[in-house]
Design a protein that fits this description.
This protein has one domain: ABC transporter involved in vitamin B12 uptake, BtuC. Helices cover 75% and strands 2% of the residues. The chain has 15 helices and 2 strands. A two-stranded antiparallel sheet has the order 1-2.
């Protein structure tokens, strides 16, 4: 291996690591706020990329119907819960309509817009608008009723949700993969390196989103509320912060990050209905490097995972996944020795 090959592999690793960093941040965020190890994070990546692919073909993606069905189920559950609590019917209906308004409106708009073959950027924005509300709806359906359950129970639920979303992905998009056009067709050469416009977009968007998350957590009321919930759920409740609202917001952000990651990587590789699992699992490995607690640690771990995967594919392409996932073992052993187990309270 000479310097030119090493630099190419390093660039490829950092590019992939930027995507894994976004997913790792989302996984850390969800776990810190809700104690959910969010295995289905990768499904949002696949749904985002494949929805965009179907919009490119002028077809109506199944995620539109899925969004409308989820909104309907949440509306029914909220209506039943409100009536059981003895709240006035008018107030319950107003709250239900308020919660269901955006998913229904964006779903109906997408039904009209899908066959129109909108410009590439408009299709990307429409994809984000479709996938993002699936996060809080999924939280309401699958996780909110079990908000006080143990981490193990929540993990089991995540596994079930993962399999359900993977099966729905096959039903929505079929077994064929999709690869979307690049958002920027330019190419730049720096010696042996050849940078594509899409690679620069991945770097720029990843950096901008990481900075935006830092500003959100440090300087916004909602961000500080999420941090408070992550530090002490009971204390946050006593201070008037709704743990359910915090969980819904964290899932919204996770869905947005996942869908955005799907849009970023779809022009660089073919995405299938089950591709999200491996992509999300690498983000999870990076999050474990940070102990599912540190955002900077998760980002650095993601860059390490990306570089390790890139060089591993060069030396032993058949074992690149094994190399990446085996790297988690010494980290787990080190953390188990450093931090003795404490029973969950």
């Amino acid at each position: 291996m000479d310097f030119s090959i090493a630099s190419i592999l390093l660039l490829d690793g950092v590019t992939n690591g930027a995507i894994y960093a976004l997913l790792a941040l989302a996984i850390v965020l969800v776990f810190a706020v809700t104690r959910v190890i969010f295995i289905p994070q990768g499904e949002f990546v696949a749904f985002g990329a494949l929805t965009m692919g179907m919009l490119q073909l002028g077809q109506t993606p199944g995620t539109i119907a899925f969004l409308l069905v989820m909104a309907g189920l949440v509306a029914v559950l909220d209506l039943i819960a409100g009536l059981r609590q003895g709240k006035p019917l008018g107030g319950v209906l107003a709250r239900v309509l308020k919660m269901a308004a955006y998913p229904v409106l964006i779903g109906l708009f997408a039904l009209w817009a899908a066959p129109q073959k909108l410009p590439l950027l408009a299709q990307g924005l429409l994809t984000l608008a479709l996938i993002t509300p699936m996060g809080p709806l999924l939280y309401r359906l699958a996780y909110q009723p079990l908000a006080d359950a143990s981490v193990l129970v929540l993990l089991i639920v995540s596994v079930g949700v993962h399999f359900a979303l993977t099966g729905l992905g096959l039903a929505f998009f079929g077994a064929e993969g999709f690869r979307t056009p690049s958002f920027w067709q330019a190419h730049f050469s720096f010696g042996a390196l050849r940078l594509s416009g899409q690679t620069l977009i991945i770097f720029a968007v990843s950096l901008a989103l990481i900075v935006s998350l830092w500003l959100f957590f440090e300087h916004s009321l909602y961000g500080k509320a999420l941090r408070a919930t992550a530090v002490n759920r009971l204390g946050a409740r006593l201070m008037g912060i709704s743990s359910m609202a915090a969980g819904s917001l964290s899932f919204t952000m996770a869905a947005f990050i996942g869908a955005l990651s799907g849009l970023l990587i779809a022009p660089t590789t073919t995405i299938y209905y089950d591709s999200g699992f491996l992509i999300g699992l690498k983000g999870f490995v990076a999050a474990v490097f940070a102990g599912l607690a540190s955002y900077p640690g998760a980002a650095l771990g993601a860059l390490f995972v990306g570089v390790l995967e890139s060089f591993g594919s060069f030396w032993a392409s058949s074992y690149k996944e094994v190399i990446v996932f085996t790297s988690i073992l010494p980290v787990l052993l080190w953390r188990s020795w450093r931090d003795p187990h404490i029973d969950e309270t």
